[in-house]
Structure formats: structure tokens, C-alpha cells
Amino acid sequence: MTTPTSGKTQCFLRVRQAEAEPVIYRVEDFPCRVGRSDENDITIAEASISTLHAVILKLPDGRLQLEDQWSTNGIYFNQRRVTQILLEGLKDIVLGRVRVDLALDEDLFDDPLPAVPSAPKPTESGPHPAPKSVALKTPPRKPRSGARRSADKGRGKVPVSAELGGKRRGIVCPHCWHRFDVEEFLFIARHQNLVGDPVLGTDAPQRFLPSRFTAEGNAVDSAGMSCPDMACPRCHLRIPQAASEMPPLFLSIVGATASGKSYFLTSMIWDLRNTLPKNFAICFTDTDAVNNQIVNDFEETIFLSSRSDDLVALRKTELQGELYNQVLLDSMLINLPKPFMFTMTPAEHHTEYEEVRERMSRTLVLYDNAGEHFEPGMDSVDNPTTQHLLHSDTIFFLFDPTKDVRFRARIDSTDPQLAEGSRVQRQEIILTEMINRIKKYSGMRSGAKTAKTLVLIIAKFDVWAQMLDQELEPEPWAWDTKMNTCVLDVDSIKNISFQIRTLLEDVCPEIVSTAESFAGDVLYIPNSALGHSPEVSDDTGMVGIRPRDVAPFWVAVPMLYFFQERGFIPSLARNKRQKRKMVQVSCKLSGDVVFVTVPGRLKPLQVPVSYMGTRLRCPGTDLWFDLPNRRR
Fold this sequence. Notes:
Blueprint: E1 11-16, E2 23-27, E3 32-35, E4 42-43, E5 54-58, E6 64-68, E7 75-77, E8 80-82, E9 84-86, E10 90-95, E11 98-103, E12 150-152, E13 155-160, E14 171-172, E15 179-180, E16 186-188, E17 195-197, E18 201-205, E19 207-208, E20 219-220, E21 226-227, E22 230-231, E23 238-239, H1 241-245, E24 248-255, H2 261-280, E25 282-286, H3 293-303, E26 324-329, E27 332-337, E28 340-346, H4 353-360, E29 362-368, E30 394-399, H5 405-410, H6 427-442, E31 450-458, H7 461-464, E32 477-480, E33 485-488, H8 490-507, H9 509-518, E34 519-526, E35 535-536, E36 543-544, H10 557-565, E37 586-590, E38 593-597, E39 605-608, E40 615-617, E41 624-626
Parallel strand pairs: 2-13, 3-4, 24-29, 24-30, 30-31, 31-34
Antiparallel strand pairs: 1-2, 1-11, 3-5, 5-6, 6-9, 7-8, 7-10, 10-11, 12-13, 14-15, 16-19, 16-22, 17-18, 20-21, 22-23, 25-28, 26-27, 28-29, 32-33, 35-36, 37-38, 38-39, 40-41
């Protein structure tokens, strides 16, 4: 990276508008906001530029990056719309209809003006699909100071400067994923006469920027009423106060139609409510009962039914309706998925409560879409219901073996889901579509891999358990007397993952290859949301379950593994692992695979590097071996 003699990071932005001389801006303070509004650090007064179009930010490693901020007409580079682009050398891009050059060194502008890159123009029928912005890890910027032009090499140059505050620009809307400062929060009017919102409709209470507050810190609306509820400045949807006080963790659940996503989500949440406080000294509660009403109803249906002998079923997740909020953004009606939000905090009896209270307190935000939303052709600008994938810290992909004809041929079960004529589906197409959408809106290169952990959840384990040649411990965690809490047996989980990966390679290898072409760390976890097969009602012919028989298995394990990766729960120490008879193996690293030669086996095992440092069993044998730690 090129820096000035003072050692301060900087970049240069040249704006080239028709019938106007190019203007060069020197950017020395980050983040630098670019847009049509005068409140931005760089103002481009052109109709195709959004109010806040993009932000130049400094990454933790010191590199600079330009990121789209939900602009209507986007950022184009090499004729492709992107949401983010690293500043390297000279970048020739288009913001809306405006040509912009970005460089780390001003001398690069001495070259002839590059040709105009062709990018689609905004159409009269509507704007282009708007990708979501990625998270900004930078402090807020105060109102921009007066910038003045100065002659330098005969061209206009505007030094961009602003004071940086001490807080992060860290509020992320769980509805539309817009990032904003705390002082940008809107408040929701409470007086019944203050209705009519330009984003939510005529029946919605008004949203307003407050100028008066009560002694308790609540805003006061124009009718003098105290207003505690806050809303996003972009989509105007309500954000619970707890969600604004703790950093979010986003998680997406993806799967084919009728694969059991709602059952998995319900069982997982119910199990986490019990497992986390009892075993890991972590409180897990609803952030807001209104947002979580649907999943709470699901929990009551399955786990708290007063008629546990009756057959019940969860209603299917619809493409529209109560699971979505309809808002008016960029002059378009858009359906945004309703998130489920949970608050996770260490319990007071946690052995390191004071040390970890702030670091571990999080708002967990979950998204559950109808399976049809992930089918090819269902991604549209007015229905960006799956774009939470861009912001998710991890993704759970639910694979249903009962929908795969090859699994069905090997399963010996009377489960009604295996009945002749029941629906089957190629689930790698759903996985591929998910990957394509993430790459499309994030600007990932075709050969790049995400740093996120992709968890493939192999559902309905009670149906296909006989296909796995290894017993599973009901609870892969153990009590640690020294820590006074349970510790997660990560080695056991990763060994089971490797056994299932081997099974999938044998039955449906395209699932494995598709997943591992996208993520460097893929975990395969079995579970059963119900613990038994459903029944067919004699009266209606519909498939249902009896709540008395529900016994979920390993439903919390994927989330516990995710929490362990984040450092929220401890893992089992290696010297406390179960004693086994080990064999010596030879390992050869090649790219993203370790070739492991096991005694008595001619063909080496091909083990992804994400398993390095773990203890594995050679599939089909009783031979155990340790993989060396990966060199950093």
C-alpha cells in the first residue's frame, strides 16, 4: 500500500462527470462516505447516486476497501455489479452513471484516462437489484467539516477530513442489514393520532428523530408522549433495545422445501434454552417476544401441548405473510424476512463472569425462509428474502436424506416420508443456488472460498442411523471440575463429521464437492429434530407427530460448535480425551487436502485440512489416528 511520507494511510478518488473537469479527492480519514447528500464526506450531485452510495473504509489489516451501502444503482467493476472492492493499484469503476477512479497513489492518475467501463444504466422500470452492505468495523464520523479545493498539479483536489468518535459505527438492522450510528435511531410515536409512515404505510405509527427526551431517556413525540421503542432509519422496522446494546451474531438456515427446517429450528431453540444455562452457564432468552411469536408458538405445539397424544404438525413456512415485513424502499415494495432474535449472556455463576460479560453478550439473529425461496429463479429485487446470507456469521444447510433417491434405496424403514410417490429433490441445486447468490451480491471471485464455517446438517438421523457405522454419544460434552462448567468434545464432533462426510461421498458426492468448493471449513453433523418417525392420520391422511414421543437428538450440537468457535464455551482438553489404541500414519499436505496413509490400506484417505489437529477413525475400521496441527 502506498502511503504519504507521514506514514498515514490515504487514497485518491477521481470523479469524472460529463461536461465537467475531473475532480480528485484525497482521503485520509476513514470511513469516508460517498453519496449525493451534503452530509457525506464526498458529495457527488448526480441523480443516479444514492443519498449514501458507498463507503471507503480501512480494514483491520490496514488495507482499504470500497463498499456499497444499499445503493439503488450500485457499483460496477469490469462490467459486474459488486458490493465490495479492495483498493489495489488503479481501479476504474462506475457509481450509478458516474465514472470514478480509485488509487492508492496519486501518480497513477498521470496515465491517460481509462476507457469508460460499460455498465447497465438505471432503467425507467425500476432500479437494479440492490445488494446488502457488509459489516463496517469502523468508528462513526461526525458531521463533515468544511472541505476546500486546492490547486495541485493543475487539478481540483479536496482534502477529506473529519474527527473520529470513540464508538463504533456498529448498529446493524436485523431486518434490512443497514449499518448506522446510535444517534441515527428513529423513535416510534405512541400517540394514536401520529400515524402514517412513508416506508411502512398509512396505518403504521410515525417514526421521528427525537429532539426531546424524558428523564428515563425515552424520546418524546410531538404529542408529548414518552416513546421507548426505536426503529431502523432505513426500513423503519422496530429494533428491540437489547439488540442495539449487544453485537449481533447472524445465522441462516437453508434447505429444500419440506426438509424440516421449522422443526429443526424449533427443537434447536427449545434445547438451547435448557442446555446452555444448565451445562454452560449461559442464559439464552427471547430478545423480543413479538419478533419470536411464531417460533414460540411452534415450541408450544411440540413441547408444551396439553394434548400430547394428539397428532400435530407445524404449518409450512409460506413465501409471503406473517413471516415477512413489507416495506417501501427505493420506491419499491420489498418483502423482508422477520428475524428471530435471542439474547445470550453469561450467567452470574459463570466462573469468569466479570471478564467475559461484555465479550460474550450477544444478540443471536436467526433467519428461516421457505425452501422455495432458494430455488433458481426466485431471487428478485422486490423479494430479497435470502440476502441475509451475505451477513450470516455461519450458515446451516439442512440436507434431508429422505428426499434423495440414493439414500432412500439404502434405508430400511417404514417412515411415511419414504413412501412410494413422496417428493424427492436434488438438494445440491439448492446449495449451488445459495452459493451463487452469496457470490453474486458479495463480489466474491469464482474460485474464492468463504471464511465462514458451513454446517451441513444431515437431518432425520433416526431414519438413517443404521447407515453410520459408529455410535453417537447423546451429549458430546462433559463436566470440567476445574472450569465448573461443561466442555464441548470437539474432537468427537469432528470425527463424526468425518464419518458422515465419507458416507456422503459414497452416496451423494456432489453435495460434498459443492459444499467444499465454497467453504474451507465444512462440518457435517447428524441430528433428529423429533427423534422418531411421524405418523399418517387415519382421518385426514396428513403426516403429523405426537408430542409425547418427541425426543430431539443432537439438535443443539451445531450451535454449540458455533459458540465454541467463537470462544463462548470451552472445549475438552486433549489430555482428557477418551483413551484409544492409536496407529501411526504418514501425512502429505496437498492444497486443501491431507493425504493420510493408514497401515493396511493401499489408497490414502483424503482429509480436508480443516480436520488437522483432530483425532479421527479410519472409516470402516477400528483404527484411530491423530492428525498433526496445521502450521500457521
